[in-house]
Design goal:
Elements: H1 19-42, H2 57-76, H3 80-104, H4 119-135, H5 150-173, E1 177-178, E2 192-193, E3 220-226, H6 233-247, E4 255-260, E5 279-282, E6 289-290, E7 295-300, E8 303-307, H7 313-321
Parallel strand pairs: 1-2, 2-6, 3-4, 4-5
Antiparallel strand pairs: 3-7, 7-8
Helix pairs in contact: 1-2, 2-5, 3-4
Length: 324
């Protein structure tokens, strides 16, 4: 029988992966390792954007571990077809998450830690990566037998285990520390983790850490803690500024305080306009703060009465302060 000229004889090894796929997997591997390194460096000082579960420090640690492992896997080319499938799913998820953040209006995707990258750009890069992975599917060589890879697999697994243990230990030591009930700050080299849901019924611990001074220790206040780079804060801040106008002539009504979480936005980009009866200030810029924004609190004589759980501003204010 005659064998087609382009068909390799049975028993001979399959041709190696194409240069195109090799370049692709190496580029994606380096990209993932770079993203993991930037996230790892930023975990101790990152301020998460509003309501973003991916910004939880423990989730970020898991992201760093996953991206580092997948990056090393892509560079090693072990079990290429399994790695191809996981890479495809990974970048597809990345594309969806980046697109969601872009639609939500986030200024940065958060993919590279403190380096701000427009989420539309990362969504485009991830989509291109997915398309390239799919187009080069047929260029992925079959994995060699496990017997010929025992030493590389063992060496790679050991390296990955060492990297994971070392980075986990370092990241856990770098995690933010909570503010004490009395408002005392943790050591100067640590990030301050704020948990406002624990302040209800207690003294407002941020009174001595804002530029508003002791104003918040007396009287009736609605305190709005926001971040100018937070997509969820955009509707909340103007809503409470308008409420400040509506309440200014109402006897016994609470005053509105807008407290920005650093890094503070430049003039013109701050979500608080400053042209209303609302008092505007910010947390101390000498420390790094970790808090999910926006946070709306009812404070009377320095004590936190309640926290708004996404109710309309005026409805919530009337319900809380009519009882006190």
């Amino acid at each position: 029988m005659f064998r087609p000229i382009n068909t390799p004889p049975v028993g001979l090894p399959r041709p190696p992966q194409s240069t195109a796929y090799t370049i692709l997997r190496q580029a994606l591997g380096v990209l993932l390792l770079f993203a993991a390194a930037m996230k790892a460096l930023d975990i101790p000082s990152a301020t998460p954007l509003a309501h973003d579960g991916l910004s939880n420090p423990y989730v970020l640690i898991a992201e760093v571990q996953f991206e580092a492992i997948l990056g090393l896997w892509l560079l090693s080319n072990l079990y290429a077809r399994v790695c191809w499938l996981i890479s495809l799913l990974c970048f597809a998820v990345f594309a969806v998450v980046s697109a969601h953040k872009a639609i939500r209006g986030d200024p940065s995707c958060g993919c590279f830690g403190r380096f701000s990258v427009n989420p539309w750009h990362t969504a485009a890069i991830d989509t291109i990566a997915v398309a390239a992975i799919l187009l080069l599917r047929r260029r992925v060589a079959r994995a060699r037998s496990v017997g010929t890879l025992r030493l590389p697999i063992a060496t790679g697994a050991a390296c990955i285990a060492i990297v994971c243990i070392a980075t986990t230990f370092w990241l856990l030591r770098s995690l933010p520390r909570s503010l004490s009930e009395s408002g005392d700050l943790p050591p100067a080299d640590s990030v301050v983790y704020l948990q406002p849901e624990r302040w209800i019924g207690r003294s407002f611990p941020l009174i001595k850490h804002t530029t508003l001074g002791r104003q918040l220790a007396h009287g009736r206040w609605v305190v709005v803690i926001y971040n100018s780079y937070c997509g969820h804060c955009r509707p909340a801040v103007p809503e409470y500024e308008q409420l400040a106008i509506a309440l200014q002539d109402r006897p016994g009504a609470p005053r509105i305080a807008l407290v920005e979480v650093p890094p503070c936005a430049a003039p013109g980009r701050n979500q608080a306009t400053g042209g209303t009866p609302a008092v505007v200030g910010h947390l101390s810029t000498e420390r790094k703060w970790l808090i999910v924004t926006p946070v709306i609190l009812a404070v009377v004589d320095g004590r936190v009465l309640a926290m708004n759980a996404e109710q309309p501003a005026e409805t919530w204010v009337n319900a809380v302060f009519n009882q006190h």
